[in-house]
Design goal:
- There is one protein chain.
- The chain is of the alpha/beta class.
- It has 11 helices and 13 strands.
- The chain has helices at 14-25, 67-73, 87-90, 94-114, 150-169, 191-203, 224-236, 253-263, 268-271, 292-298, 306-328, and strands spanning 5-9, 29-34, 57-59, 77-80, 122-128, 173-178, 181-182, 210-212, 218-219, 222-223, 242-245, 251-252, 272-274.
- A 7-stranded parallel β-sheet has the order 3-2-1-4-5-6-11, with helices on both faces. A two-stranded parallel sheet has the order 7-10.
């Protein structure tokens, strides 16, 4: 029996790295798409793939489409995890955000349609809780979408165009509406990783303060590894559908930071500075998901709770900070 072939866009991100590991364990032949960069950007997957491999890692960009890869690989499953993924920065680059996060989705789906792969190739779209925006929690698949950022608006387009191709062309096209998910592999400019990374350096005497923006934003935070299990389950379902993926618990940025500093035996408020430059033009106050549908339909449940998430991130960043300090001395 031949292996299933999976194509992951955004394979170098935290989600792509965890998903690729999961699919390889499941016996897939995994291919990834990366953008060309003058500096290495494959650190999260270098232990999984040879960074020089031309067989499984391919260059591509959602600004142009990936028809050549779809034609050559004829994948069984396509996972679109690629995006301009930072909500705050989307206000600075709204046109680019729309091109990649919205029109980029159309380019993939249209490629699958034009190449007549609809009966073979399943498609997964990484949708986002930011699409709910100002809608009060708990948010589920039936909740109103009220996005208030270029990122959220573009993701909403991607969500609806995925449904459009599913209903219009009978494609197996799914949306996973993922709430915030973090990990040891989270990018350093996201607030959770910023907090854990700087807190560890404060603990070691390498820094003396942390500057944050809105401390009261409340989010439903899970672990990326759990959420990648969820999206794989979505793609194995007997019919294409849309699912909210969340823990059902929410904490403020303040509470996250307090938990991190307490774990390190530090007084958070002794080191805290605030600056409005880190606030968004329009803030999303409270996102907390109701994931009853995926739990009841597919049997998914998160395995890593909030306490364990914080611990894993801090422990990982402490190792990194210790290595950095040793190199400086």
């Amino acid at each position: 029996m031949s292996k299933k072939v999976a194509l992951i866009l955004g394979i170098t991100g935290q989600d792509g790295s965890y998903l690729s590991e999961l699919l390889l364990k499941e016996g897939y032949e995994v291919h990834g798409v990366i953008r060309r960069s003058s500096l290495p950007n494959t650190g999260r997957i270098d232990k999984t793939f040879d960074p020089e491999s031309k067989d499984f890692i391919h260059y591509g960009d959602l600004a142009e489409g990936i028809d050549h890869l779809l034609h050559d690989l004829k994948p069984d499953e396509v996972y679109n995890l690629a995006a301009m993924s930072h909500v705050r920065i989307s206000f600075d680059v709204p046109v680019y955000t729309g091109d990649i996060n919205a029109l980029g989705v159309t380019r993939i789906l249209e490629g699958i349609r034009k190449l007549d792969l609809g009966e073979k190739t399943k498609y997964y779209q990484a949708s986002s809780s930011e699409m709910f925006g100002l809608t009060p929690p708990l948010q589920n698949e039936e909740s109103l979408f009220r996005p208030v950022s270029p990122y959220g608006v573009a993701k909403l387009y991607g969500y609806h165009i995925t449904k459009c191709y599913r209903e219009g062309y009978n494609m197996f096209a799914c949306n996973g509406i993922l709430f915030n998910h973090e990990s040891e592999r989270r990018g350093v400019n996201f607030v959770t990783r910023k907090i854990t990374r700087i807190a560890c350096r404060i603990k070691l005497g390498m820094l003396d303060h942390i500057t944050l923006g809105n401390l009261e934003a409340k989010r439903d935070w899970g672990h990326s590894q759990d959420y990648m299990r969820a999206i794989h389950m979505i793609m194995q379902h007997d019919k294409p559908d849309d699912f909210v993926v969340s823990t059902g618990e929410a904490f403020t940025v303040r509470e996250f930071a307090e938990k991190v500093f307490k774990y390190l035996n530090l007084d958070f408020y002794k080191y805290l500075r605030t600056n409005d430059i880190y606030k968004r033009p329009v803030e999303v106050p409270y996102l907390c998901g109701d994931s009853s549908k995926i739990r009841n339909t597919l049997g998914w449940e998160p395995q890593i709770n909030f306490e364990e998430l914080v611990k894993r991130m801090v422990d990982s960043d402490m190792k990194e900070a210790i290595n950095e300090k040793n190199m400086q001395e």
